[in-house]
Amino acid sequence: MEKIDLSFVIPAKNEQDSLEALYQEILQAVEPLKKSIEFIFIDDGSTDDTYKRLESLHQRDTRVKIIKLRGNFGKSIALQEGFNKARGSIVFTLDADLQDNPKEIPAFLRKIDEGFDLVSGWKKERHDPSLSKVLPSRILNLLTRLLTRVRIHDTNCGFKAYRREVINNLNLYGELYRFIPVLASKQNFKVGEITVEHRPRKYGETKFGWERGVKGILDLLTVVFLTDYMRRPGHFFGTLGLISFFSGFIIGAYITYLRLTTGTIQDRQPLLFLGMLLMIIGIQLISTGLLAEMITYWRQKDMKNTTDQVIAKSL
Ligand code: UDP
Ligand code: MG
């Protein structure tokens, strides 16, 4: 298989009017670099002429590849399909709506050359239509920094550059694409960021609004769990379970003591129930943790080929 320097993975849902200009701008930006390139456009269930426009690009330029999804599967799946097809040793992702400026491509490459595995764009000055979109995004980014301790300002920026090894270790679904820098950083890839220009949308409309913020919090919990506890889920459930069980146990012991010394626990029923409940919940949580550990154990055993996962080099 022929080797390629740069892949451009571009998910597009109803972006017919931006595609031609985007293609030209990228070509212009990479021309002086003298690198071999490929484009991978993913049509994520567009209902406009996106696919037709892509087809005509493909006919003009064989470096343009298209993946048409059967319907709208969302940005994570679109990106993942693009990654699966990409062959470049460095892979870029860009939004198709021209909000990202391809002029910045060389700056990303310089940062990669400094030794970073993943470089993420930071839209320091945003040009989004409303506060209802920017504010949830700011809050979510802050929470992400606090909970994951990964120092990235704008995890969700669509403009990123990856070394091949990073995308080999991503497994995107749902809304996880927004946390790619966290997922990569927790696998000990070196993650950096550069500020990028953010242009207002010229054609089409945004596919996301404020509701993204609410779902984002749930996704953040998932990410924290997947990254910090994936390899030791028993600790997560077990800690909660032990706290719950022992609180219940102490209450139970106290009630028993009352019964033995005073002979009655008449007005102590609510406390009794609370104690029982805490012990039952505790046992449930601990069992869940043990089951999760069993699954992890078998999975680890099945993964004969762990090379890509943890080894950077072996001589
Ligand atoms: N997109 C996609 N599938 C979707 C939603 C969006 O492929 O279900 C693409 C969209 O075409 C664009 C990128 O993801 O290229 C970012 O979307 P958008 O510009 O609407 O998000 P915003 O910049 O407003 O956050
Ligand atoms: Mg956009």
TrEMBL record:
Entry annotated with the keyword Magnesium: no
CDD domains hit by this protein: DPM1_like_bac
Gene Ontology CC entries for this record: plasma membrane
InterPro entries listed in its UniProt record: Glyco_trans_2-like, Glycosyltransferase_2, Nucleotide-diphossugar_trans
SUPFAM superfamilies: Nucleotide-diphospho-sugar transferases (SSF53448)
Keywords, sorted A to Z: Cell membrane, Glycosyltransferase, Lipopolysaccharide biosynthesis, Membrane, Transferase, Transmembrane, Transmembrane helix
Membrane spanning stretches: 236-258, 270-292
Domain of life, source organism: Bacteria
GO MF term list: undecaprenyl-phosphate 4-deoxy-4-formamido-L-arabinose transferase activity
GO biological process terms, semicolon-separated: lipopolysaccharide biosynthetic process
Residue ranges of domain Glycosyltransferase 2-like in the record: 7-168
PANTHER family linked to this entry: UNDECAPRENYL-PHOSPHATE 4-DEOXY-4-FORMAMIDO-L-ARABINOSE TRANSFERASE, UNDECAPRENYL-PHOSPHATE 4-DEOXY-4-FORMAMIDO-L-ARABINOSE TRANSFERASE-RELATED
Protein name: Undecaprenyl-phosphate 4-deoxy-4-formamido-L-arabinose transferase
Source organism per UniProt: Candidatus Daviesbacteria bacterium GW2011_GWA2_42_7
